[in-house]
Each structure stands twice: as structure tokens, then as C-alpha cells.
Amino acid sequence: MSESPKIIAYTDQYSEAFKTLNEEWITQYFKMEEMDRISLNHPREYILDKGGYIAVALIKEEAVGVCALIKSEHEGFDFELAKMGVSPKAQGKGIGKLLGHHIIEKAKELNAKRLYLESNRVLVPAINLYRKLGFKEIVGAVSPYERSDIQMELDLMN
């Protein structure tokens, strides 16, 4: 039986994994956009230094999943759940669910009241995961991403 995944806080040693795990899914379904390049090439400056957080899922010390909590620029939201990527070889093992729960708990620790995310409806497993985590679809938010065709929120006060 394979080793259980563990979730840890990002350190700079995982910068390449953070970039690669996200580039895999982005380039499989879409194209890299400017906002992707900024956040993936500079996670410390773009995410961590602004009060955000990145979780890394490890199996046998190998990074197989990542997810970020980025300070939200959307009014009424504290953070954005973003840049969740799971290695194709580790998909279907509940890593995304573990990362999602971990990120939500971290947001609560940071006194967040509402989380935001954006995605694309073609990513059916991701959308289903977000719904299972309690996210609800919203309309009217403006996205810097061409690929974004669904926005969701999670009220952490309930």
C-alpha cells in the first residue's frame, strides 16, 4: 500500500514543484497567461509576502499536489483559493480534497470570513470537489483570466 499523503506549508525548496504541478494542468486544458507566469514564477513575492499561504502535498517526500491561498483583490473576500494542482500520477487519491480542507482550515486560522475561487467548467473533477468543499457558484465577478468561466464563494461564518 502506498504511503499516505501529508500536507505541509510551502518552503522555497518546493518552488519548482509549485510551478510544474500547475503548468501541467494549465497547459493540458488551456494556455499559460500572464497572471499564471507571475504567480508561478514568484510565489514568495506574489503570494506569501502579501499574507497568503501555499500548501504542499507530499507522498514519500515527493511533492504531488499544491494549493494556494492568495489575499483576495475581490471586495468582500479575504482570500482566493487558487493554483490547486495535483500530479497526474497522484490524481484520484483524494489529494485535492485533502488540500482543499487544509486550505479552508488555514483560512479560518487567518480569520477569513469568505473565500473566492475561479475555475473553468471543463475541469469537472475540480468543480465537483469545490462543491463538495461547500463552495457555491456566484455571478458578476471580473476575472483577469481568459479561461475563467465560473466563480465560486465559500462563506466561512456558517
UniProtKB/TrEMBL annotation:
InterPro entries: Acyl_CoA_acyltransferase (IPR016181), GNAT_dom (IPR000182), NAT_camello-type (IPR050769). GO terms for molecular function: N-acetyltransferase activity. The keyword Transferase applies. Residues 16-157 form the N-acetyltransferase domain. PROSITE patterns: GNAT. This is GNAT family N-acetyltransferase. It comes from Flagellimonas hymeniacidonis. Keywords: Transferase. The keyword Transferase applies. Coiled coil: none annotated.
